[in-house]
Amino acid sequence: MRALSIILEIFWVGNAKYTDKELNNVLNINKGDVYNQSILESRLFMSQDSRDITSLYMDDGYLFFQVTPVEILVENDSIDLEMRIYEGRQAIINKVTVTGNSKTNDKVILREARTKPGQLFSRTDIIRTQRDLAQLRYFNPEKLGVNPKPNPADGTVDIEYVVEEQASDQVELSGGWGAGRIVGTLGVSFNNFSARNVLKRTHGNPCQPVMVNHFLSAHRVPVHGFNPTMLLYGTLVRRKKPNSLSVSVFHSRQNLTGQKRMTQPVKPFSPQGFLRTRQKTKSS
Description:
By secondary structure, the protein is α+β, with helices and mostly antiparallel strands. Helices cover 19% and strands 34% of the residues. The protein contains six helices and eleven strands. The protein is elongated.
């Protein structure tokens, strides 16, 4: 075929869900445009912005959808295209599972999933779920995956999310010099900590906490005779919107042995007295 060909006609065959006009609006390739196979494929299959024919169908449950572009007429510098569509039936989500999590509780992951059993399959919901899981920072974002397992016989699909956990706990150590002494701070934070499951046996370790979306943080900052200790424990309570609930305990101790406190009263400032003083000064 020649390097430059002009599209004369675009025909749609097999479409029942959407009209030719609706499909042409999504395809956004018009008569008279220069034929470009890479642009055509991106508008048909999985574009970056999800504005393509396949996403249009798959976001409405048509997991078994297929479209095949066929060049039905090629003459000189013109070409006619026929889009042959197989819509299939809408797929209902049957089961949603997760694999690869050794510490994180399944419910922590599944509550982030936008794909729920009984709903229509949606490609966009799967992409958003992967993005939400990456934002938890419990998993390696490069290893997040999804395995749809369609069952054409009954029109259902099982969705399996694949994760790989990564370390999310933190240790903070800082120090400085001032007023003739060293000041230091030591802090430890356990993200997604579970006080309820800390003593349960999990994967052979009786003290390994099972993550249920809690956090535990402890800090100790000795400075200027004080030895304050702060303990912070919190949990995320989620329904339709995320909310934060936290409890904190703060303890401090001061050692005043061998120290004297010097106080000196300060005479209150009086505008009238100040003016009288200024007048006496001028008179003398």
